[in-house]
Amino acid sequence: MKQQEHLPLASIWKLFKDQLRLLNFLSYFLLLGFGLALGVLASYSLIDSKSLISHVTQFCVSTPPSPQPLPPPPLVTPPIAQPLPGPLPLPPLLFTPPPAQPPPVPPLLYIPPPVQPPVLVAPFHDGIGTKVKPKAVKMMGDLELLQKASMLPRIQKLPYKEPPKVAFMFLTKGKLELAPLWEKFFKGHEGLYSIYVHTNPSYKGSLESEGSVFEGRRIHSKEVKWGGFSLIEAERRLLANAVLDVSNQRFVLLSESCIPLFNFSTVYSHLIGSTKTFVEVYDDRTSVGRGRYSRHMYPTIEVKQWRKGSQWFEIDRDLAIEVVTDNKYFPLFGRHCKGSCYADEHYLPTFVNIRFPWKNANRTLTWVDWTRGGPHPTKFLRPYMTKELLENLRNNGSTCEYNGGRTTICHLFARKFLPGTLNRLLKFAPKIMSFNP
Ligand SMILES: *[C@@H]1O[C@H](CO)[C@@H](O)[C@H](O)[C@H]1NC(C)=O
Ligand SMILES: *[C@@H]1O[C@H](CO)[C@@H](O)[C@H](O)[C@H]1NC(C)=O
Ligand SMILES: *[C@@H]1O[C@H](CO)[C@@H](O)[C@H](O)[C@H]1NC(C)=O
């Protein structure tokens, strides 16, 4: 009985509870739906503002990089805090697209896709015959220059059975004070070399005397800041000019403080005969190596691919063309290697390490003295320019790998030699370096 009495009450209670549960469930459901809708809306507006940001950065180089949604790569050393770009407007990057055209991707660099002309056209050629003084370099803006360079075929034969040439590319601030030494070096070897000079546009003085090997060899140049991205833009400008002459098979970057350590024939045959390119490449895991890597470069460049090395390179034609037409890594450096990143010490070593590790000797042929520490290498003044120094730089008893064997020639060039050393160099050159026999 008692149970019977209780039964209806209990069932009513149960029914009520069930309805309550349903109501609860429904309200949860509504809340969930509302939350979902809110989330979708929010993410849409986020995407919108992101794409807006990226559109803005496409046109304004100096805008700080937008945060990347990519997961940060494992860092061995934390990157050092980069100084803010500050209000200083950055110099315009190399090869910006013409304003009339729609913005191409990648935005910082406009390179038309490489076409492969079947035959080489004559206008690219610099000299006819071997003993003819080269014509002056054509002054070309970055865009025209790069369009021309990117049209060059990757593999080509030298026309007219001409000997290959070495392109000596001088990246200078102003006057080439050691030019008289270089004049002696080149004398009598016309047809085996080309010279290109990139000088800061602010330098208005003359570069050379009449009849000099440097006459008419100045290329269209732009302002260069020490350690900045403009430095590798200038290197690229030099390379782009030099690859236009199909006879150029080796490319050497030099500064105004560089000197040759051997005579022309030794330098020439060492470079032309080498199976390897000479770009210094090493992995520095400290703050002045991997610490300069920016995680915004991920995943195109990973921190374990990041390399360091001297700016002064000796490369072959294939690599030169690859550098000139690189529209993947170069613009990435333009965006993310600023301030204390020092693009000149990282761009080419990282590029070579990723793309051509097998063909590189990983060392430079340009000697420099870092033993005294600090951010700058030793500068040699007149008193230090001795016969012993020169002889020691040419051969100090150690050997280096060359085409599978060993050679006593580890360096072909050396820096940094100040103008005061010129007279002694001119005096020693004929005897020690057997210039002009
Ligand atoms: C260049 O120097 C080498 C020694 O380094 C010498 O054997 C050679 O005869 C020199 N060549 C010329 C053309 O002077
Ligand atoms: C240079 O380093 C690369 C790795 O970056 C390596 O594959 C190559 O064998 C090295 N070259 C020489 C000559 O040691
Ligand atoms: C020769 O010079 C190289 C670097 O230029 C150095 O690493 C090496 O220790 C030197 N060798 C001798 C025997 O002094």
From TrEMBL:
Keywords attached to this entry: Glycoprotein, Glycosyltransferase, Membrane, Transferase, Transmembrane, Transmembrane helix
CC per GO annotation: membrane
Transmembrane segments: 21-47
Statement: the UniProt record of this protein carries the keyword Transmembrane: yes
Membrane topology summary: Single-pass type II membrane protein
Molecular-function GO term, any one: glycosyltransferase activity
Cellular compartment(s): Membrane
One Pfam assignment: Branch
Domain of life: Eukaryota
Primary localization class, coarse: membrane
InterPro entries associated with the record: BC10-like, Glyco_trans_14
Protein name stated in the entry: Core-2/I-branching beta-1,6-N-acetylglucosaminyltransferase family protein
Origin organism lineage: Eukaryota, Viridiplantae, Streptophyta, Embryophyta, Tracheophyta
